[in-house]
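Entry 14. Ran structure prediction on the chain below.
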Amino acid sequence: FFFKQKTAYEIAQRLVGSEMCIRDRSTQSTWERIYLSLSMKVYVAWHFLICILDIVLASDVIPLYDKTYKSFLESHPVVMVKFYSKNCPHCKAFEPIYEKAAEEIKEKGRPFVLAQVDTDKEFITSDVYEIRELPTIKLFIQGNPIQPNYERGGDPILDYIEKSTKHLYPSMELFQISEIMQILNSTKRKVFFVYRNSSEVDVHSEVALVFPDIEFYHISGDVARRVFPENPTTSTVVFLKPYDEKRAYLTSKIDKNVLSEFIKDNMFPRIRDFDQHTVGSVLNPKGRKGVVLYTKSSVDINIYQEFHKVATAMKSDGIYFIHADINQPLAKKISKMVGVEEADTPIIVLVERKKELEVFHYEGKFNSEEISRYIEDWMKGKLEKWTKSEAEPKDTNELVRTIVGKTFKREVLDSPKSFVLAVVSPHSSECKLVEEALKKVAPQLQKLASFGIIDGTKNDIKQYNAKKFPQLIFFPKNKKERPIIFEGESSEIKILKFIQDNSEAPKTDLQLQHITY
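Output, structure tokens:
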């Protein structure tokens, strides 16, 4: 390299710095010629060694200059640029990290470039990007810098670049077995696509854009056989997940729809944890249907396995299958809404939010086939909704009957006569006075109406639940859907007059609000 620019005499002149180096050879003594020859050989050997060291120790970080930075950034889709100064201590500390990242990118065959700009020399480039502190690390995608800048101490450089370029490279090709094995050992969800041609990679990459939270990679068939020796020979996609069967294989012909459905089926566990996300998805009016297995902390493995069979068989029906430990705070809170006590566990509860929360209790055997049939009937609208209720009382001939949640519709709404219902609490002395007054009034007005008492703390009567106790509600004979609330002193005379007045011609149509206890 050196002799292309320097003649032997110029080399000797720089080395020795004496006029004797450029004297005519005929005038040089023997010792002078020997000295000049040895000096030239030493000088050439020294520069040859420097050239070899430059090749061996060459950096994978590309230097950029004022004259070349623009064309370089435009010709490379993804470039990270470090703006530094040789006198900056932070730059010196960051240098080995940056160099190591460049080596990693090169070894793994990633389509990224790491470059650097010396701000002490390349003033124009530094001014264009308004560099005010050092080091500043910018990522350029298709020639344009993205914001914010890369922060030292954040994600590893390669991870940061891959996340930032997900839209350009949604699926990354892997070559190194060691890197693939490292990825396999992570707990993240990931999809490996075994490709045969570039068009298949395009389909895979297009689908990968739809699922940004999942890592996508593509590998050759030779690599796949080494990494997945148990892989069926016809498989084209392997989904790795930290739950259920750990690995799922797609063996059918690949296209966008097939691949998307395969990923949807595997991107979540068959049985989800009872957390804010799943609960919110079920309780949302536009959310999903939920099938919840309530258990105590120690769940019977046989029950869980039967539940898992159902979840696996019905994975494509848009249902969340959830396991809830009733002793956990969130599960315990929601259990009150769906009528589950610790003594009821284990129990399966079906939940769906429409205009109101609809709840269904499965009370059959823990058999996957029976549970599946019950869920299918639920999806077809064949089941009767669960109602918070005490056990049905024994049939009596009392004028003032005991009403519970299960008998409310049959005895109150379907009654051929008007109905007077007292909603009470067993712990209220005022409620006891209303009960006594109602028992005295009933014999006098039994031809006009039927009478009943319901414990509002233990029974759900839908939109007729009371705001306070006691609550006296009158259901007119022909307008049961528009009941009338008694307001005033809970005396026998007042109640008697209220019933007489409204039995003939109700003066008001007071629509009650739905109250949830």
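The chain has 17 helices and 20 strands. Will compare against last week's run tomorrow.
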